[in-house]
Design a protein that fits this description.
Elements (H helix, E strand, L loop, with lengths): L6 H19 L2 E9 L4 E8 L6 E9 L22 E3 L9 E2 L6 E2 L6 E6 L8 E7 L11 H4 L10 E5 L4 H5 L13 H16 L5 E11 L1 H9 L11 E5 L16 H7 L8 H10 L2 H6 L6 H5 L24 H4 L10 E6 L7 H5 L2 H4 L9 H4 L4 H15 L10 H27 L5 E6 L8 H7 L29 H19 L22 E5 L3 E5 L3 H10 L7
Parallel strand pairs: 2-4, 8-9, 8-10, 10-11, 11-12, 12-13, 13-14
Antiparallel strand pairs: 1-2, 2-3, 3-7, 5-6, 7-9, 14-15
Length: 564
């Protein structure tokens, strides 16, 4: 039953990419504007919104750091060099170096630390609220471009939107224990910190309010957002947050440091010992393209244990001036400065469709391997009898026949919804209720199942499949390559209006309730009450959180790793 993107679909997507770029780069008018930043003047231009004839101002490719080249490869970013004259910021710069998710060609550049500012108005009675978006991509891919994150929907509102690149893969997350090398890890997260500092210091020049900044992240961007809410490096740099389909407590964002560096270097041709100084010298000499190409160092055993990515956030082996993660995320929940700010958090109703191809390629093993579904951190503190009991209870809660030795394909994907996404989100909600009980936390569940506009599901699973996949909600926030202009009476367009209405209302007023969703009222969570969420489907409903019993089951696995 293998269903993969065929050659025709791939060619169609590539043709659309080319056409999209041509259209996008011709949307600008001749009207240009020059503004100042702390590093120098920048020139932007006025662009048309894809719907209607409205316009916005775009400043793209503004450097927020020095290019991380040469001695700065793998290391914390440094502030940008000031420039003379006016810098042309009317076009996008390169994405971070990475392998394309579909075409498998290497794209981008090491010189990638640029951001984009999109402003509805450059003058108004009072400065506009600011939204800063952190892209996802498993810390392995991602880009702040209009190809993926077109600002058109947000620019229908009085808002300033900022998107930025950060380093991914080994270039962003290589970690070495040797202090002399100054590569403790998390360079990509440190890029995010520097971008947020730039926004705080410069956004007033773009009519943005530096005292009203909302940080939004999806998937790895959501995990990043929670990390930004924890590190003291960012205290006061933003004032509310939206975490979409991710959390720093998700296993893929919270792996122990496997010390990938030696294995990675060997894949690139290194034949020396596991001496970090020698490994580092080798990696410093390697071409950036070779580093980006070498992204398949996981063993089959590791893949079957659901280790998704080799490079991501780590607890840094020593504390430096730029340190972002000094303790495991679990240990910082109670003291996180982000407990002081309002939060929206949630995910999609069938997150596990994200793993469709992953499970399809290894069904013979994965559909009968129940033990690997138990979180690795739980297995690490459990003996064989306890793991067996966890598996027994997982079957008991999940299947009518608890003695079965094999799952159905969709049953496995549903369990992976909890394992990879929903339980990490749920634990973050629990932490908020325990440690930020007086600060609003709003819970949502994105459940809009469009046959034509849930593009990530279509890409991963084929057009025959239904359900609301991980990252499907992104297409209701940003105009991008797969997007097309919708009839304004369609449920898809109404969902875009709902999402943008709620997210910008939250950015404006700390509260997502707005005219678009009335008369439905979305209430924040209460500490001792049942979990309730806004279900965002063909209609909006404020309901009891579905699958609460399953989430409690997953809580029970963590008896030895309690939050509080």
């Amino acid at each position: 039953m293998e269903v993969q993107m065929g050659v025709a679909d791939l060619l169609k997507m590539t043709a659309k990419l080319i056409a999209h770029k041509i259209v996008q780069y011709n949307l600008g008018t001749k009207l240009t504007t020059i503004l100042s930043t702390n590093s120098g003047k920048v020139k932007g231009l006025q662009r048309k919104i894809v719907y209607d004839e409205d316009t916005y101002y775009a400043f793209e490719g503004i450097p927020y750091a020095k290019p991380p080249l040469g001695e700065l490869r793998f290391r914390a970013p440094q502030p940008p060099q000031p420039w003379e004259g006016v810098r042309d910021c009317t076009f996008l710069r390169s994405k971070p170096l990475q392998q394309h998710i579909l075409l498998h060609v290497v794209e981008g550049s090491e010189d990638c630390l640029y951001l984009n500012v999109y402003a509805k108005k450059l003058k108004s009675e009072k400065p506009l609220p600011v939204i800063v978006y952190i892209y996802g991509g498993g810390f392995q891919i991602g880009e702040a471009t209009r190809d993926v994150y077109g600002p058109d929907y947000f620019m229908k509102k009085d808002i300033v939107l900022v998107t930025f690149n950060y380093r991914v893969g080994a270039l962003g997350f290589l970690s070495l224990r040797d202090r002399d090398l100054d590569v403790p890890g998390n360079a990509g997260l440190k890029d995010q910190v520097l971008a947020l500092r730039w926004v705080h210091e410069n956004i007033s020049n773009f009519n943005g309010d530096p005292n009203n900044i909302t940080l939004i992240g999806m998937s790895a961007g959501a995990a990043s957002t929670q990390i930004m809410m924890t590190t003291e490096q960012t205290r006061g740099l933003f004032h509310k947050a939206i975490l979409m389909s991710g959390s720093s407590l998700c296993a893929w964002a919270n792996e122990p440091d496997h010390h990938w560096s030696h294995r990675f270097a060997c894949q690139l041709g290194y034949s020396g010992s596991d001496n970090e100084k020698e490994v580092f010298r080798f990696l410093q000499r390697a071409s950036a393209k070779e580093i980006a190409c070498c992204n398949n160092i996981l063993s089959q055993e590791e893949k079957r244990d659901y280790i998704l990515f080799p490079f991501g956030p780590v607890v840094e082996p020593y504390v430096s001036d730029s340190c972002v993660i000094s303790k495991p995320p679990l240990e910082t929940l109670s003291t996180a400065w982000g407990n002081e700010i309002p939060v929206i958090i949630g995910g999609t109703s069938f997150e596990g469709l994200f793993s469709y191809q992953y499970v399809l390629r290894d069904t013979a093993h994965l559909l009968s391997d129940f033990e690997s579904l138990i979180p690795l951190e739980v297995r690490d503190v459990s003996n064989a009898a306890q793991i067996k009991e966890h598996v027994r209870r997982l079957k008991l809660y999940s299947f009518e026949d608890a003695t079965r030795g094999r799952m159905e394909f969709k049953e496995c994907l549903q369990l992976l919804s909890y394992k990879h996404f929903w339980h990490g989100i749920h634990r973050t909600v629990q932490g908020r209720l325990a440690y930020a009980p007086r600060t609003p936390t709003y819970l949502y569940r994105f459940d809009f199942d469009s046959p034509t506009y849930n593009h990530y599901r279509i890409l991963l699973c084929g057009r025959h499949e239904r359900g609301v996949c991980h990252a499907d909600d992104m297409f209701y926030m940003f105009y991008n390559i797969p997007s097309n202009k919708l009839d304004k009476s369609s449920p898809e367009y109404r969902t875009i209006e709902n999402m943008i209405g709620m997210w910008t209302s939250f950015a404006n007023h700390d509260n997502p309730n707005c005219a678009q969703i009335a008369p439905v009222r979305w209430e924040s969570l209460e500490s001792k009450a049942p979990l309730k969420c806004l279900n965002i489907g063909r209609k909006l409903q404020f309901i009891d959180m579905p699958n609460t019993e399953q989430l409690k089951l997953w809580d029970s696995f963590y008896e030895k790793l309690k939050l509080f």
